[in-house]
Every structure is written in structure tokens, then in C-alpha cells.
Amino acid sequence: MICGVHNTDLLVCCPRGAFQSPFDDQTYPGSVPGGVYVPTTPSPPRRDQFTCGQPAVRSKIRGLGSHPWVARVGFLNALPAAVSGSKAGQVDYPCAGSIISRTDILTAAHCALAKSDNHELHTCCELVETDVCSRYSVRLGEYDGEGEIDCTVEFCGPEVQDILISKVTVHPLFVAKNFSNDVAILKLDAPMNFTVTAQPICLLQNPQVQLIGRQGQLVGWGKTPGQE
To answer: I need a labelling partner for 52 at 20 to 30 A (CA). Which of 80, 153, 198, 203 fits?
Structure first.
């Protein structure tokens, strides 16, 4: 069972308790002339071969690595602190998205088009000086927002990935008044690396699947009504 990460390598845990090998020095295949050792336990997945919708961290951990497909969508503050109340060039992350490929993030259209509170979707650095402008607008692999590397008592994840947005595609039938067809895709300027904290979510392949009445799970860093 995969139970953690060390320096981006997956750790495999074995059940507790005594274990006695069925082989001894006389019967172990490696000691028999012509014997061949064949491993029966599959190796953990390679770091570049993750399965969509399946967290690589499998244990009682419910935090870091449990929802690796969630990305943070950044907005760039274009005005100085005296006007906006925050530092010019600072990137805030009020929206989230889902990783669907190495270069694509699925998000809400109202986030992709938002230009409120003197912020706009972060796709370039033309509005402020480059020395105060972070050239990134999607952050991948972050959990608590406290630093470049997130840690729990079990393990530390890999460093977060910050990648610039190169293209925004909004659903052609999006209606802002009632949020119908509230979907957009953000194309990244460079492909991300899949890690235990940055993996894709699965998309439905069968359009006939009925999800009405099914329980869903909401994950992200967005604000709900009443929050500051």
C-alpha cells in the first residue's frame, strides 16, 4: 500500500505483524541452480504514470495528496497598495480548477472572465513592473497555501508548480446573469509534471451516465457567502 512520499518517491507500507518467509536457504529460488526469482508484488506506479482520479497516496491521510487534481487559479493585482489595499503585482488565488491534462485546467467561466476588485486573470506581466510581478497564474500541488512545500506529520510533498496561462476558452453559451454553461478551459504555457500532489481528474466518457441524485464532493479554496 502506498502511504507517503520521500523526495517525490512513493513509499510502500507493509502490514504490521510477524512475517515468515516460505523459503529457507535450501528452497529459496536464488539458491537453487537454474532457479529464477520472480517478484509477486507489483511495483508502485512511476511518477509519470498516474491514473486519473486515483490519488497515489493511499492510507488514512485525508489532507495532502488526497485531492491532487485541484489547481489554484491566480489573479493579478494591477493597482498599488494605496488604491487596492494589496501589493501591486501580487497574485491572489480566489478560484480553483481541476487538472484534466498536463496542459489544461477546467474551471468556471465566471472565474476566467472575472475582473473584479482591481484584479484580472493572470496571463501576463504587462500591467506592472517585472521585478514585482510573479509570472504565474495557475498553482499546482498546493495544499494549505502556507509555502512552496507542504508537509504533514506523515510526509512532505514535492514543490508546488507555478505555470502561466497562455489561452482561455470560455463556453460559447455562457450566460453571466444566471451562470448557465459556467465552464472554461485554461491552457497552460508549459506542461505540468504529474506528482503525488498534481494529477488529473477523470472526465466522463459515457454521455449516458446519470449523476442526478448522486452525492458530490466540493474541494477548493474559494470563498462562500459570508466569508471574509
So the answer is: 153
Q: How far is residue 11's CA from residue 4's CA, in Å, rounded to a whole number?
A: 5
- Dihedrals φ, ψ of 188, to 5°? -85, 150
* Rounded mean pLDDT for each run of 10 residues along the chain, 228 residues in total: 54 54 45 51 52 67 77 73 51 85 92 62 49 62 74 77 88 90 91 90 81 80 60
Name every residue whose Cβ is closer than 8 Å to that of residue 55 and which is 6 or more positions away in sequence. Answer: 65, 66, 67, 68, 196, 199
Cβ atoms of residues 59 and 65 within 8 Å: no
The pTM score is: 0.65
**End-to-end CA separation in angstroms for the chain:** 40
Distance of CA 113 to the CA centre of its chain: 22
Q: Assign domain 1-203 one CATH number from 1.10.443.10, 3.40.190.10, 3.90.1150.10, 2.40.10.10.
A: 2.40.10.10
